[in-house]
């Protein structure tokens, strides 16, 4: 009964998001993009449908080759889909060339014009739109101020650092006030410290301008910290769309659960009102879930939701400590259950860093309420 | 502060530097500056009866470039024939440069956008004409465009024309021949420049609302300009001094500076005029180069 599996996955909950209009800025409808033809054709996008709301910071997250950049390029107009529609503000723009779309891109390589100055780069889009000179000048200055590059307006782009080039690319793409700003892994070329700064900067720009951002990244932390909503992609398909909290706490499948953060996968089977973990213990069925009986299931529990407890507690399960790994802020406790199922608990390290546990010791643990998720696959 | 010993050492290394570069300097002096100097001296001498020069100062060779002295009253008149030759040389060289660019740019773009393997093949094909003597290639063009040549025969046979087109021995024939001969010199530097061009800039341009034409004019051309300048110099300079092509395709009538100079050293028996014309050619070329360099520098420097 596959239908009941779908039912048990709770529908996306947006209470955590800041209020957004329900109006869609961009919509992809059943988009297919195949490269090559015939037998060797590769489906970079396989029937992807997604709606991106006006004014939201939407992130497409996935490993390289998952199709996230292809989807971005379809929205930008650099590629045409093999099948399906791309809509902007409800208008079909599927076959509109990129220079006719009120959409701008921040490229991974920045693609700044080497023969132009910083200010000329920023002014380029406005000039191509045929804006009057005074307006071009005023907007360019405003944009340079927005990214804090007024002092470098007359420089050649080759004389700038990576972070500064990034800001120019942002200002250049924002200057024509696009309806949607597309960002193709814009932070991947920056070092860690600069990347953190730019993450905050990007979020600030998005809030200040109110422009819809579609951000592509393979960095899960970047996605979690910056986005209003995330679309997780793999193998040309959209796996899950939801707020960062949804994606992290209620992953719908094994891919999403393992791609974002660390997690425990536990084979399980439903037995009446309980779930048998592997061949061993039975835990009560989590509230609101009713997976089919007799089918192999996978449970996922984040390591930080696995708690050590007193063996006398009702839901306590016994296990043996296999190894302990000290990470500073926390200690990972690898445990083995009596049927051989492995489990990791992330324990907060005490002040002296000593967890008081020993290898081979028998401990009791339980899952935090609501932490157990049943996966589709 | 440099000590005395350090200063001595610097001087010694300076001396060693001069000594080491002396072979190159010697070759430069003997092979480049020397002959130029001889030309300059000859241009101020008096022509000998049977060629060669007679020692005696005269500026006749210099006035003779543009003027002719009246046999009866010794007044100077503008020499139309010479002006025509100079004008034709500059005009045909410029036309050749422009046309070689118009044909060479799409060619270079095509080659630069092929996959690496195919690119090597195309570049190889471009260089094939260099394997054959210029004279033979020019005669081949002659064979195609002459009155009973390939082109006219085919057009007559197809009934497209009633009588042979008069192409050979015209300015157009010279222009056609020079464009053919110098085209590779335009394509190669253009290719080198386009090959380095970051194709992602095209997407950035389209993304920022530029049309195809605007992308070409505002992005591609300015970025590959060093290649355009280099190619234009490589075509314009040898075209201006061309000798074989105008000789064979222009007949005796459509002379360019190169032929005119040769004439002075040959049948004309006016070596000083030949020398002054050669120096004039050098000055035109240098002036053209200076304009280019100034142009290229200003673009790089500005903003």
Summarize the structure in words:
The complex is a heterodimer of chains A (377) and B (303). Chain A has 377 residues and is α+β, with helices and mostly antiparallel strands. Chain A folds into two domains: 2-102 and 178-258, Rossmann fold (3-Layer(aba) Sandwich); 262-375, Nucleic acid-binding proteins (OB fold (Dihydrolipoamide Acetyltransferase, E2P), Beta Barrel). Chain A has helices at residues 2-8, 68-76, 118-128, 133-146, 162-174, 192-209, 220-226, 244-249, 254-259; strands at residues 24-35, 42-53, 57-61, 83-88, 91-92, 103-106, 180-184, 212-217, 229-234, 237-242, 264-271, 274-277, 282-284, 296-301, 306-308, 317-326, 330-336, 342-348, 362-367, 373-375. In chain A, the strands form four sheets. In chain A, strands 6-7-8-3-9-10 form a six-stranded mixed beta sheet, sandwiched between helices. A five-stranded antiparallel beta sheet of chain A has the order 13-12-11-14-20, with no helix packed on it. In chain A, a hairpin with a 6-residue loop joins strand 1 (24-35) and strand 2 (42-53). Chain A is elongated and about 80 Å long. Chain A starts with a helix and ends with a strand. Chain B is mainly alpha-helical and 303 residues long. Helices cover 73% and strands 3% of the residues of chain B. In chain B, the strands form two sheets. A two-stranded antiparallel sheet of chain B has the order 1-2. In chain B, strands 3-4 form a two-stranded antiparallel ribbon. Chain B is globular, with a radius of gyration of 25 Å. The interface between A and B is medium-sized, with 29 and 20 residues.
Summarize the structure.
Chain A is of the alpha+beta class and 377 residues long. Chain A contains 9 helices and 20 strands.
The biggest beta sheet of chain B, please?
A: 2 strands, antiparallel
CATH homologous superfamily descriptor of the largest domain in chain A:
P-loop containing nucleotide triphosphate hydrolases
Oligomer: heterodimer
How many helices of chain A does DSSP assign? 9
End-to-end distance of chain A, in Å? 13 Å
């Amino acid at each position: 009964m596959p239908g009941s599996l779908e039912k048990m996955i709770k529908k996306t909950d947006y209470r955590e998001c800041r209020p957004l209009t329900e109006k869609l800025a961009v919509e992809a409808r059943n988009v297919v993009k195949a490269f090559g033809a015939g037998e060797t054709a590769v489906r970079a996008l396989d029937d992807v449908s997604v709606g991106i709301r006006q004014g939201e910071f939407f992130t497409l997250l996935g490993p390289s080759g998952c199709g996230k950049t292809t989807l971005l390029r379809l929205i930008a107009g650099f590629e045409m889909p093999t099948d399906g529609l791309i809509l902007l503000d409800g208008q079909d723009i599927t076959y509109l060339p990129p220079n006719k779309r009120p959409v701008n891109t921040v490229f991974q390589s920045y693609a700044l014009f080497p023969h132009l100055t910083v200010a000329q780069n920023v002014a380029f889009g406005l000039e191509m739109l045929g804006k009057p000179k005074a307006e071009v000048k005023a907007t360019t200055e405003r944009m340079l101020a927005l990214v804090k590059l007024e002092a470098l307006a007359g420089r050649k782009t080759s004389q700038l650092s990576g972070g500064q080039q990034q800001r120019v690319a942002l200002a250049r793409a924002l200057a024509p006030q696009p309806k949607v700003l597309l960002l193709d892994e814009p932070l991947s070329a920056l070092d860690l410290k600069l990347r953190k700064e730019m993450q905050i900067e990007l979020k600030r720009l998005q809030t200040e301008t109110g422009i819809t951002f579609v951000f592509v990244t393979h960095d899960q932390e970047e996605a979690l910290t910056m986005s209003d909503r995330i679309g997780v992609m793999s193998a040309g398909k959209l796996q899950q769309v939801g707020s960062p909290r949804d994606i992290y706490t209620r992953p719908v499948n094994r891919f999403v659960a393992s791609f974002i953060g660390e997690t425990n996968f536990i084979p399980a089977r439903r037995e009446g009102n309980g779930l048998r973990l592997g061949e061993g213990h039975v835990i009560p069925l989590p509230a609101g879930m009713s997976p089919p009986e007799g089918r192999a299931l996978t449970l996922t529990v984040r390591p930080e939701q696995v708690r050590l407890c007193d063996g006398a507690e009702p839901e306590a399960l016994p296990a043996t400590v296999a190894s302990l790994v000290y990470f500073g802020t926390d200690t990972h406790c690898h445990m083995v259950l009596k049927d051989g199922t492995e489990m990791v608990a992330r324990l907060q390290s005490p002040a002296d860093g000593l967890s008081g546990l020993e290898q081979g010791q028998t401990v009791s643990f339980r899952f935090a309420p609501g932490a157990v998720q049943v996966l589709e696959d | 502060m440099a000590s005395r010993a350090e200063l001595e050492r610097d001087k010694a290394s300076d001396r060693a530097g001069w000594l080491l570069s002396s072979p190159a300097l010697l070759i430069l002096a003997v092979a480049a500056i020397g002959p130029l100097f001889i030309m300059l001296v000859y241009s101020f001498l008096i022509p000998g009866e049977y060629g060669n020069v007679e020692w005696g100062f005269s500026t006749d060779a210099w006035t003779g470039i543009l003027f002719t002295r009246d046999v009866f009253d010794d007044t100077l008149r503008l020499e139309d024939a010479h002006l025509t030759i100079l004008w034709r040389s500059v005009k045909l060289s410029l036309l050749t440069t422009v046309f070689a660019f118009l044909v060479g740019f799409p060619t270079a773009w095509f080659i630069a956008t092929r996959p690496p393997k195919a690119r090597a093949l195309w570049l190889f094909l471009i260089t094939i004409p260099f394997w054959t003597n210029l004279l033979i290639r020019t005669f081949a063009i002659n064979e195609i465009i002459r009155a009973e040549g390939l082109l006219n025969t085919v057009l007559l046979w197809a009934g497209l024309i009633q009588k042979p087109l008069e192409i050979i021995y015209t300015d157009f024939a010279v222009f056609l021949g020079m464009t053919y001969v110098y085209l590779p010199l335009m394509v190669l530097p253009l290719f080198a420049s386009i090959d380095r061009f970051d194709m992602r800039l095209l997407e950035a341009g389209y993304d920022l609302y530029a049309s195809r034409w605007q992308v070409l004019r505002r992005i591609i051309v300015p970025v590959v300009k060093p290649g355009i300048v280099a190619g234009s110099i490589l075509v314009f300079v040898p075209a201006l001094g061309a000798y074989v092509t105008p000789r064979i395709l222009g007949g005796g009538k459509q002379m360019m500076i190169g032929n005119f100079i040769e004439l002075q050293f040959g049948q004309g028996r006016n070596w000083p005029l030949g020398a002054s014309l050669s120096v004039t050619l050098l000055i035109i070329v240098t002036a053209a180069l200076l304009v280019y360099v100034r142009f290229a520098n200003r673009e790089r420097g500005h903003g």
